[in-house]
Write a structure and sequence with these properties.
The chain is an alpha/beta fold and 433 residues long. It contains six helices and 25 strands.
């Protein structure tokens, strides 16, 4: 499989709206850590907390890119058989982008964000500045003990109300074998005789969440699902168990879960060095409007639900990545997919629009322009063409609506047009002939 300049997270190698005034921001106290970066007491992973009355959302975000015991790490204890795993730069960037989106853009008036826990492992550790409050937080390192503690605290907060919603996001190395999925954390291989002591058994976590009162649960696992010798030889051990499976109390509402994987079982997941991963970038694009639809009961109100998110992510994951080529890098998949109204767009959603010529070669020789009702909206002059991808389409984001006109003009030549036409989610494709 071509790497197209990307680095994958697997065994083989290697992207505002202020929070409501009705919520009072709480300061989170910082507790001491031991020499290994483990939290000694308290819940230091919380980087955003607000008072809410009634149902709310509790999120846990983990991004693991720096692995001290893998090649390129700084620990004297190195993994004797790293299974091709190494250092990553995309996961911490991806996790920070998701955390920022949750704090500044996530909008569910019925279940507002109450808490966000963030754990990272990055080459150069840095603090997290809450983009809503401006408060600066130390970031808890994404080791197995710290993640287990964060899961426990996250669980206890969400277990207070059957109408709560949970969000779990992980980006980093991962491996899977059959029904077992190990999420590789920063201290992986810290004990060479028990490598997976530094991993989280995601299958057990997901099964264990059956027992929690919170009835709406959304999961994003942005990691490879290819198998490794380590997992195969571990004989049903896929890492630390945060929650043991238990049947749900029959008096509680049914669990509604949406579980998104960045890759198919057995496949790889890719990340752009120093940028959000392919999956996370397209997830955020979907959440910002591409996966929205008007609520039939509330005309003019645009909502994102988990089913539309899957459709939008699928589409963008299969967009061309290099000039004119359809490159099947990875295919996202789902475990369960209950329909949950997840997010309300404030105002009109922005929709990705891809503008190109037929023949495609003309993309490299024209100035593109977009007008709406006679008013210029945006342009792409030839001077802005990427020399590495001269025949690539012009990608822009436009507010959903009618009356868009698109044109392609050759220097000193004729202009061709497409429109007027409407633009709406999930995306627009404009072909100018």
């Amino acid at each position: 499989m071509p790497t197209i300049g990307l680095r994958h997270r697997c065994r083989f190698r290697q992207l505002t709206r202020p929070r409501s005034d009705r919520h009072d921001t709480l300061d989170t106290c910082l507790e001491d850590r031991d020499a290994k970066g483990h939290v000694s007491n308290g819940d230091q992973a919380v980087v955003h907390s607000v008072n809410t009355a009634g149902p709310a959302t509790h999120a846990l975000v983990v991004g693991c890119g720096f692995y001290p015991h893998l090649p390129g790490g700084d620990s004297p204890v190195q993994c004797p058989d790293p299974d091709g795993l190494g250092q990553l730069s995309s996961p911490p960037v991806s996790a920070r982008a998701v955390a920022d989106w949750l704090v500044t853009e996530y909008n569910d008036p019925v279940k507002p964000l109450a808490t966000l826990s963030l754990l990272l492992s990055e080459q150069q550790s840095s603090k997290y500045r809450n983009p809503s409050t401006g408060q600066v937080h130390d970031v808890v390192r994404a080791t197995a003990p710290n993640v287990l503690a964060a899961v426990k605290n996250w669980y206890e907060r969400a277990d207070a109300d059957a109408n709560h919603r949970t969000i779990f996001y992980y980006c980093g190395h991962g491996t899977a074998q059959g029904t077992d999925t190990a999420l590789i954390l920063a201290d992986f291989c810290g004990q060479p005789m028990n490598e997976l002591d530094g991993a989280l058994d995601f299958g057990k976590l997901y099964a264990g969440m059956e027992r929690i009162k919170a009835s709406e649960q959304v999961y994003f696992v942005d990691a490879c699902r290819a198998s490794t010798d380590t997992l195969i030889e571990a004989a049903d051990f896929a890492g630390q168990v945060a929650l043991t499976p238990k049947k749900r109390d029959p008096t509680l509402p049914k669990r509604l879960a949406a579980l998104y994987y960045a890759a198919l079982a057995g496949d790889l997941a890719y990340g752009l060095p120093g940028q959000p991963s392919l999956f996370t970038g397209n997830l955020l694009k979907s959440l910002r409007g591409a996966a929205s639809a008007q609520d039939p009961a509330q005309p003019g109100v645009w909502k994102v639900d988990t089913a539309e998110m899957k459709k939008a992510i699928d589409y963008f994951m299969n967009r061309p990545i290099e000039k004119g080529e359809q490159v099947p890098v990875q295919v996202a998949s789902v475990g369960e997919l209950a329909t949950i109204f997840f997010h309300t767009i404030p105002g009109i959603p922005n929709v990705p629009v891809f503008v190109g010529c037929d023949p495609e070669a003309d993309n490299a020789t024209v100035d593109f322009a977009c007008h709406r009702n006679g008013v210029s909206v945006d342009t792409r002059p030839m001077a802005q063409i990427d020399p590495a991808k001269p025949e690539a389409e012009w990608e822009i984001e436009l507010p959903a609506g009618d009356g868009y006109m698109f044109s392609a003009t050759k220097v000193g030549g004729a202009s061709k047009q497409n429109g007027p036409r409407p633009i709406g989610p999930t995306h627009g494709v404009v072909v100018i002939k």
